Structure prediction request, 293 residues.
Amino acid sequence: MKELTVVTSKSMNANYFLKKRLQMIGLYAMLTLIALYTLAPLWLLLVNSFKDQSEIISSPLGLPTGFTLSYLTNAVKEIHFFKALLVTASITSISVLLIVVVSSMAAWMMVRNKSTASYVVFMCFVAAMLIPFQAVMYPLIQFFDDIRLKSATGLILMYGGFGLSMSVFLYHGFVKGVPRGVEEAATIDGCNIFQMYLYVVMPLLKSITVTVIVLNSMWIWNDYLLPFLVIGNSSTKTLVLELYFARITAGQFGNPWQLIFPAVLISIIPIIIVYLFLQKYIVKGISDGAIKS
Prediction:
């Protein structure tokens, strides 16, 4: 009887481990398919950045028959890469700095001053997250044109306004976890409100600040519609606009794939580098900010 019980127990354990193994195999197979699906566009972009037009059309998924940097160097010249990179980096940096300073100060004040007015203002920021840009696009562009701010400066102000709602929401939740006693101690030591914000509050908001920087930088860097409407075909074009107008100029009789693929590749490299260095802060910042809201 004991031997039968032992055999039955071993059989149940074997079936359990077999079932768990099959579940893990299925899970890894599904994750592998998702990873391949996600990485396929990047593979397509990478391998076709080193091919000519005919090779891209005949074998879009295959490796290039020869390795040459001529297509990349040609793309750098055609899209005025370094000038456009400076313009894009300047617009992105100033816009993100504006978003970080205004949204962090606004969220801090709304959390520390618990009143009906603060709650209403916070709800307005949250509600603004639901309003699509297309709903206010034409009135906004017309307004900035009327006040003669349809330029890079106006574009920075627009980015600052559109980025506030989500950033305030993230900061608002995170500030709730900052101990008020730290600020009270700083007040006793003689800090004014600006010193407290700069030297006490902001260092404690480092992880959520990095999250806000990365999310807004990726959005502003890759944006096409707003720069196209505000800057257009001016002398200070962003990388995305340079890519668009270079494609229009070179593609009068079709799509110039040997220009498009390498131009897109060199355009996304800077923001990918920034993301790789700061990615560890993103999930932590979003989860900490959202859970406490």
The chain has 13 helices and no strands.
